[in-house]
Specification:
Keywords: DNA-binding, Transcription, Transcription regulation. One of its GO terms (molecular function) is DNA-binding transcription factor activity. Helices cover 44% and strands 25% of the residues. By secondary structure, the chain is an alpha+beta fold. It folds into 2 domains: 190 residues, Jelly Rolls; 104 residues, Homeodomain-like (Arc Repressor Mutant, subunit A, Orthogonal Bundle). Strand 3 and strand 4 form a beta hairpin. The longest helix is centred in the middle third of the chain and has 26 residues.
């Protein structure tokens, strides 16, 4: 367990440590953006509210562990996206892990360095909207009654969360877009949780998990397929075949996605130069990093960073 200095409500933490950059309301959609007051640590917060729903996107660099309380009156979904482990309700939650909340507040320990999560709160009225077919509504409500409500934030969910929080659409178009993407998120999570008990553990899952962990913990190193295969004692063809079968993306796709996610987080939460960020995500030359970043994001690193301040 991490020793923490202060326990705060999430609202009080934001009031104490952030300043509002922009806030506007359009067609029932309320958009708020805030950043850290301190010049020594970088933090960004975005809140999107509409139709009995609130989405919190929180990315913050802290120096001392601190515990905050996220209130959840009804239903909610928590997405842990930090490269390090946070402690949620006294349990360590690793990166790319999500869980369902049903009327319980979340006690979250923020740890030194980067903390990144997304939390979506639903009110019961959200599920009463006419857009939801009765069978879809039942599927969603069953989701919040699961006994083991954790899930993996896979490639599909990662892409959907990025689209939810970074869309350039505005007004009614943004409202419709967000609703559609939320339905996709709920569908993907439901598919994972309801099918979990029917899926037997893959024979090579322990080895593939070690490969994944090696990549996650060493994003500054670009391992070859041969090096990764040797690290877990299997041949390269088995590694490529079974990694894709379990994680639904190739080793290269996974490593690239993790590097780009980490780079985006560094661009959001630090003032590091592009050349230093390049090194931290495994590129010896910043030009190669910028090319890879633009290929994946349709923006250069500098364009992405400038867009965050708008």
């Amino acid at each position: 367990m991490v020793d923490t200095t202060t326990d705060l409500s999430f609202k009080f933490f934001l009031e104490k440590h952030s300043r509002i950059i922009s806030q506007k309301e359009e067609f029932g959609l309320d958009l708020l953006k805030a950043s850290s007051k301190s010049t020594n640590r970088k933090g960004n917060y975005q809140k999107i509210s509409f139709a009995n729903l609130v989405l919190h996107q929180f990315s913050w660099n802290i120096q001392t562990p601190i515990t905050i309380l996220l209130p959840c009156e009804q239903q909610g979904i928590f997405f842990q996206l930090s490269p390090n482990c946070n402690i949620v309700n006294h349990q360590k939650i690793g990166e790319n892990t999500g869980f369902i909340v049903n009327g319980e507040d979340i006690e979250l320990t923020l740890v030194p360095n980067q903390n990144y999560f997304i939390f979506i709160e639903f009110k019961q009225e959200y599920f009463e909207q006419k857009l939801l077919h009765p069978s879809l509504k039942q599927m969603v409500m069953d989701l919040f009654l699961q006994k083991s409500p954790t899930f993996r934030i896979n490639k599909e969910l990662s892409i959907l969360l990025e689209k939810l929080t970074s869309t350039q659409k505005r007004g009614l178009c943004q409202l419709m877009y967000l609703n559609g993407k939320l339905f996709e998120v709920l569908s993907e999570i439901s598919d994972q949780i309801t099918n979990y008990e029917n899926n037997q553990q893959h024979q090579y899952e322990p080895q593939m998990s070690k490969v994944k962990q090696l990549i996650d913990e060493n994003l500054h190193i670009q391992y070859s397929i041969n090096e990764l295969a040797k690290s877990v004692g299997i041949n390269t063809s088995y590694l490529k075949k079974h990694f894709k079968a379990i994680y639904e993306e190739t080793v290269f796709e996974y490593a690239t996605r993790k590097r780009m996610d980490y780079a985006k987080n560094l661009l959001k939460t630090t003032h590091l130069s592009i050349s230093i960020i390049s090194e931290k995500v495994g590129y010896q030359h910043s030009a190669h990093f910028s090319y890879a970043f633009k290929k994946n994001m349709d923006l250069t690193p500098n364009q992405y960073r400038r867009g965050l301040s708008k």
